[in-house]
From TrEMBL:
PROSITE patterns: HTH_MERR_1, HTH_MERR_2. Coiled coil: none annotated. Residues 16-79 form the HTH merR-type domain. InterPro entries: DNA-bd_dom_put_sf, MerR-type_HTH_dom, MerR_fam, Tscrpt_reg_MerR_DNA-bd. It comes from Sulfitobacter delicatus. GO terms for molecular function: DNA binding; DNA-binding transcription factor activity. This is Transcriptional regulator. Keywords: DNA-binding, Transcription, Transcription regulation. It holds the Pfam family MerR-DNA-bind.
Length: 145
């Protein structure tokens, strides 16, 4: 987004929140950490947001939904702001993120398998012995096959 933040409109922060579905405090946070630029102000000093703010906030929210970290989003936005990026550069960042997502999926699948196997060994009876509590107490969890 250019330094002049585009043409200001009559959108207040609450309007921006309603349009995007983003929490007011989250918008403040994004402004505070520099992902969203400070909006221009009306003559009375009220913050006014424009279409570019809506688009940028929507970009940030979608990137968060896809699991990008704040720093990854900052890097993507920097590329967009410079306007000097190539599809190859963006693709590399996307592939790197995809590899992280796939690793997390593998970890979650392993956790699922261990939990399913352990819970299947639970008798569900009134006995105090429970395989799940034993696994949690031992601190040692074997990898699922």
């Amino acid at each position: 987004m250019p330094s002049d933040h585009g043409v200001a409109s009559a959108l207040k922060r609450s309007d921006l929140a309603k349009l995007t579905g983003c929490n007011l405090e989250t918008i403040r946070y994004y402004e505070g950490v520099g992902l969203m630029p400070d909006p221009p102000r009306s003559p009375a000093g009220h913050r006014r947001y424009g279409t570019a703010h809506v688009e940028r906030l929507s970009f940030i929210m979608r990137a968060r939904e896809l699991g990008f970290t704040m720093e990854e989003i900052r890097g993507l936005l920097s590329m967009v702001d410079r306007g000097s990026h190539t599809c190859g550069e963006v693709e590399k960042r996307g592939r790197d993120h995809l590899n992280v997502v796939r690793a997390k999926i593998r970890d979650l699948q392993n956790i699922e398998a261990i939990l399913a196997d352990t819970i299947a060994k639970c008798s569900g009876s009134d006995a105090p012995e429970c395989p799940l509590l034993n696994v949690l107490s031992d601190g040692a969890v074997a990898k699922a096959d």
